[in-house]
Structure formats: structure tokens, C-alpha cells
Amino acid sequence: MFKLNGTVFMPSVLTLVGIPGLESVQFWIGIPFCAMYITALFGNSLLLVIIKSERSLHEPMYLFLAMLGATDISLSTCILPKMLGIFWFHLPDIYFDACLFQMWLIHTFQSIESGILLAMALDRYVAICDPLRHAIIFSHQLLTQIGVAVTLRAALLVAPCLILIKCRLKHYWTAVVSHSYCEHMAVVKLAAEDIQINKIYGLFVAFTILGFDIIFITLSYIRIFITVFNLPQRESRLKAFNTCIAHICVFLEFYLLGFFSFFTHRFGFHIPPYIHILLSNLYLLVPPLLNPIVYGVKTKQIRDRVCKIFHFKYPS
């Protein structure tokens, strides 16, 4: 790495600041973050074990939930160990290529999670609006195909972000990243060259994946609500709603946090940087923490299995 006209040419190592403006209290911030990570690992791992061991849960809704749990474990593991290394052990340096790899993993797993939420919404749509054909449509073969398609869509659409950085951006103002992990725009903004194409492609990926998924999830639930409200019996309506509540909670939690973080990062010029970084961190940490809790509380089969494992009674 050497400097030319005040810029750094192809830095081999980047330095992650952590949370700009809160460096003096990062050690303490790491404690709740670590607790959230451990809880998320435990909750999602327990969810995976329960779904794998209980044959009655080998249904599309629960298999999608298992995919979501595995994605949550992977997503939180991509950022927390390195983040805690910065907060607790003063290890801010990361190789440039390792930073790009972390960026690819984070944005890929985010996109996979969005795709799984769409698949879960479509599963609920068919289960409620066309229940007689649900088992035929959502076969195990289709579930495998959906899992592969969601993963490939995310991996292939995110990959050009790295290629554009690696091939187009050679000179950087600094090697210091004002973030606690390698976020796409945080790295791109370091460049001393034109970054318009990188910005446009980043927005294209965000709106292609998240925008597409949100539109179809919303349309699915509009159809579900219309069908449910037309059911003649009140008990049938409540039962149908109850199967959707957990997914709606997870859907709102993921996308509301995501869009709030996305727009404050790009357009919230008057918001302090540490607010941006904290929101970004919470966006990646809160869903893996809450998802198993929400599904554990709202899904009777999972709740009963957890109670059986820990030998306590849950009021029905």
C-alpha cells in the first residue's frame, strides 16, 4: 500500500472504527451485543433441533422456519466475532479481500432471509386460500428448489458489488472504515474515484430483492385477509389469523428495521454517525434474536416441544 497525491492505492488492510463517536464506551456496548448473539445462537439452534427431531414438524411452514433459523445463525456469525474483536480486544484491522468477503456474506444472507420470508408468505397464501392443493404444490422437491433459487438469487446479485469495487476503485482517500463491519456503502465512500455506478447498482440490488419480495408478500397477505374475512365462522377466522401472526411480526420487524437503517444511512445527513451504525447493527442482530422467540411463543407445536425439553408447563 502506498500513497499517491494524498490517496491510498489499493490498500491491503482496512481499519474498522467500530461505532464512531462511541469508542470510549464500545467495551460496554459489546456486552449486550454478545448477549444478543448468544441468545440468537441458542434460540435458533434449539429451533433447528426441534424441527429436525419432530416428524410432525416436517411440513413446509416449519422447514422454511428451519431455513430462516440457519440463515439467522450464519448472518449474526458473519459480524459479531469481528465486532467483538474491535470492541473488546482492539483488533480493528481486516484484510481488504476479507472485508469484501464479509460484505458479500452479510448482504447475501440478508437477501436470502428476505427470500425465505417471501416463500413463507406464499406458503400461508396457498394453505389458507387453496388448502386442498397445499400438500401437492408445496412438495419437498419444490422446497428444495425454492431454497436453491433464493440462495442463488442472493449470491449472484450481490457478487457484482464486490467486482465493481475490486475492478473499478483503485484509489482511496483513507483505509479507515467508519463502521463496525464491512457494509457496502461504508467501503465505497472511501474511494477517491467516481462511485456513481457502485451506488446505482447497490440501489438496484436493494430494490430488486427487497422491493420485489415486499410487493409479493403484501399482495399475498391482502389475498389472505380477503379470504379470511369471507370465512363464515368466527373460530375459523381466528384459527386462520393465528397461523399468520408470527410471520407478520417477523416480516414487519425485518423490513421496518431494514428500511429505517437503509434510508437513514443514505439520506439522514443530519443524523449522528453513531445512530447510523447502531441502527445497522441492530438490523442485523435483532431479527436473529427475535425470530425464534416469536415463533416459539406463537406456534403451539414448537412451544409444546420446548416445554417438554425443559420439563415445565406452559398455560394453554
Give a written overview of the molecule:
By secondary structure, the chain is mainly α. The protein contains 10 helices and 6 strands. A 3-stranded antiparallel beta sheet has the order 1-2-5, with no helix packed on it. The protein has a 3-stranded mixed beta sheet with strand order 4-3-6. A hairpin with a 2-residue loop joins strand 1 and strand 2. Helix 2 packs antiparallel against helix 3 and helix 3 runs antiparallel to helix 8. 36% of the residues are buried. The model has no long low-confidence stretch (mean pLDDT 89).
Short description:
With about 325 residues, this protein is mostly helical. Helices cover about 75% and strands about 5% of the residues.
Oligomer: single chain
Biggest sheet strand order reads 1-2-5
State Rg.
21 Å
The helix/strand series, from N terminus to C terminus, equals: EEEHHEHHHEEHHHHH
How many strand elements?
6
Structural classification? mainly alpha
What does the largest sheet look like? Answer: 3 strands, antiparallel
- Discrete helix count: 10
Tell me the helix content.
over 70%
In percent, how much strand structure appears in the residues? 5-15%
Gross morphology: globular
Distance from N terminus to C terminus (CA atoms, Å) equals 64 Å
Q: What do the pLDDT scores average to?
A: 89
Runs in which pLDDT lies below 50 for 5 or more consecutive residues are: none
